[in-house]
């Protein structure tokens, strides 16, 4: 609502102005009154008025002094001065201070109301223009940032010199130049959980942007979210030693900061030096391979590609070949081979084969199920990519559960999973009023969240979230029949601590707000 501050030491004049304006203005306005200049100054700070009407002569701090002090505290509000006598010097000072109008008392009611109306209209139009300009700038900034990200990702992924040059030209047009002699990519990875997935990528990138900015002086680093759970940093420099050794120390400091503020596991892989920005994809590939070394270590760490032993070429596991026919899959044998390879040596070649075998198995499972489940929505094609795996055991568990689910859905036998599903449904029903998510259920039954998600999609009509919401709303409907229970308390009893969110969810499911639903019950 538009606010007008009226400052005058004479009460009947102050009240008269408020009465005239409130009774005749077409706009809805809130009035704030001040009895002197000092009080007006304080209320200008606390009430943030859109327009100030002040008497020129007041005790303690007159109108001109009041306006001068407004400027000193950066309160930029249009001011209209009221004066009981003509004084050319006062008028000159007022104009110099930026006063918009110098109105003589007694006030001519009609002219005064029209004057204030015109100011309110102008101020509101100016605010609207300002909002529109801000939104336009924000949208332009958003589009620019998206273009930068798209071009950076293109540059990092492309292997063609001509394609890379095109990306460099496009980035330069957006104000991002790559003109150093040496480059290095760092893949910063972090655990994404149901609790942090909505914000973690944004937060990690912002922390890294600020940290590099504070620590790199004249050197440059560019960060880009490569995918959920990974930010890639591109460092530039003129010295190989500075890039490799100094940046390794800097990356360790950054990871400590990320772990402290993001409360999650973090790991970084440092790629080799690229002697041309066109070769960034090679440095990135090496950085991502080095980051996968985290499956051999626990906790926060940094691994440089150049520090990894190359090692002997391991025998291919050919796990996909061992998945044909599906009914004869020996899961224990497959996982045993995978683990033996993982523990045969912590080398580049072992890491490369592990990732290749893992991804091939996952893609094969998706391919088989896409054929088997054509036209159905039971199969959840998403799986954890190898870069999101944080231990050999986790990789084995992920493969085991996906292969088990594949076998069950292909041969139609579901006795084991049906029993597990009943247990999970009982657990959800028992803890329906508590904070509950897919990850909680998965941890309780020692399964991955992807596995639990697929089971819920198979055995319930809409998956885990739909089931949980549906059961909570059933309870809410029953409780709303008792008018003695406050609606906020009902939300809490159903697992929604935020009453606004409870209302939104309830309306989404039922088409009515909780209050509207209760009133409808009472009126019957």
UniProtKB/TrEMBL annotation:
Q: What would be one Pfam family of this protein?
A: Response_reg
Kindly indicate whether the keyword Transcription belongs to this entry: yes
Q: Which UniProt keywords apply?
A: Cytoplasm, DNA-binding, Phosphoprotein, Transcription, Transcription regulation, Two-component regulatory system
Q: Localized where?
A: Cytoplasm
Stretches assigned to the HTH araC/xylS-type domain: 422-520
Q: Which GO terms describe its molecular function?
A: DNA-binding transcription factor activity; sequence-specific DNA binding
Indicate where this protein is primarily found: cytoplasm
Q: Which GO terms describe its cellular component?
A: cytoplasm
Checking Gene3D superfamilies in the record gives:
3.40.50.2300, Homeodomain-like (1.10.10.60)
User: Which Gene Ontology BP terms does the record give?
Assistant: phosphorelay signal transduction system
Q: Which residues belong to any copy of the Response regulatory domain?
A: 3-120
Q: Which domain of life is it from?
A: Bacteria
Residues carrying 4-aspartylphosphate: 55
Signal peptide start-end: none
Q: What does this protein do?
A: May play the central regulatory role in sporulation. It may be an element of the effector pathway responsible for the activation of sporulation genes in response to nutritional stress. Spo0A may act in concert with spo0H (a sigma factor) to control the expression of some genes that are critical to the sporulation process.
The name this protein goes by in its record: Stage 0 sporulation protein A homolog
């Amino acid at each position: 609502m538009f606010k007008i501050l009226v400052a005058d030491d004479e009460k009947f004049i102050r009240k008269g102005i408020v009465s005239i304006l409130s009774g005749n203005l077409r706009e809805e306005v809130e009035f704030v009154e001040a009895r002197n200049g000092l009080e007006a100054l304080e209320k200008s700070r606390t009430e943030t008025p859109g327009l100030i009407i002040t008497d020129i002569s007041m005790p303690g701090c007159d109108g001109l002094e009041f306006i001068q002090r407004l400027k000193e505290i950066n309160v930029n509000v249009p001011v209209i001065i009221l004066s009981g006598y003509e004084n050319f010097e006062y008028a000159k000072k007022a104009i110099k201070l930026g006063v918009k109008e110098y109105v003589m008392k007694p006030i001519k009611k009609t002219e005064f109301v029209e004057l204030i109306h015109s100011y309110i209209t102008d101020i509101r139009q100016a605010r609207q223009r300002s909002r529109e300009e801000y939104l336009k700038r924000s949208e332009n900034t958003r589009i620019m940032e998206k273009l930068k990200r798209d071009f950076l990702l293109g540059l990092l992924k492309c292997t063609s010199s001509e394609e890379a040059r095109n990306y460099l030209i496009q980035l330069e047009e957006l104000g991002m130049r790559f003109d150093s002699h040496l480059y290095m990519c760092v893949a910063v990875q972090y655990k994404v959980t149901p609790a942090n997935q909505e914000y973690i990528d944004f937060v990690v990138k912002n922390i890294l942007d600020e940290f590099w900015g504070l620590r790199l002086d004249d050197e440059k680093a560019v960060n880009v979210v490569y995918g959920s759970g990974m930010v890639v940093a591109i460092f530039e420099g003129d010295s190989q030693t500075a890039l490799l050794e100094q940046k390794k120390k800097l990356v360790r400091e950054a990871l400590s900061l990320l772990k402290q503020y993001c409360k999650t596991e973090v790991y970084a892989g440092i790629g080799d030096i690229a002697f041309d920005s066109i070769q960034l994809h090679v440095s990135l590939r090496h950085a991502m391979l080095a980051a996968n070394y985290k499956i051999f270590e626990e906790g926060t760490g940094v691994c440089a590609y150049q520090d990894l032993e190359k090692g002997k070429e391991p025998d291919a596991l050919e796990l996909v070949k061992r998945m044909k026919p599906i009914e004869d899959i020996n899961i224990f044998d497959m996982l045993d081979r995978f683990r033996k390879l993982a523990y045969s040596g912590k080398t580049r070649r072992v890491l490369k084969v592990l990732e290749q075998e893992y991804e091939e198995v996952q893609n094969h499972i998706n391919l088989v199920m896409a054929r088997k489940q054509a036209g159905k929505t039971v199969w959840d094609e998403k799986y954890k990519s190898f870069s999101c795996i944080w231990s050999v055991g986790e990789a084995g568990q992920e493969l085991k559960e996906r292969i088990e689910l594949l076998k069950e859905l292909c041969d139609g036998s579901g006795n084991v999973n049906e029993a597990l599903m009943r247990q999970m449904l009982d657990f959800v029903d028992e803890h329906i009023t508590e904070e509950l998510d897919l990850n909680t259920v998965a941890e309780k039954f020692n399964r991955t969240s992807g596995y639990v998600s697929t089971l819920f999609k198979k055995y319930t009509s809409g998956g885990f979230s739909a089931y949980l919401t549906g059961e909570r709303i059933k309870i809410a409907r029953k409780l709303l029949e008792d008018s003695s229970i406050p609606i906020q308390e009902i939300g809490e009893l159903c697992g929604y601590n935020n009453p606004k969110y409870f209302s939104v969810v309830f309306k989404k499911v039922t088409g009515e707000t909780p209050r509207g639903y209760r009133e409808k019950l009472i009126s019957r």
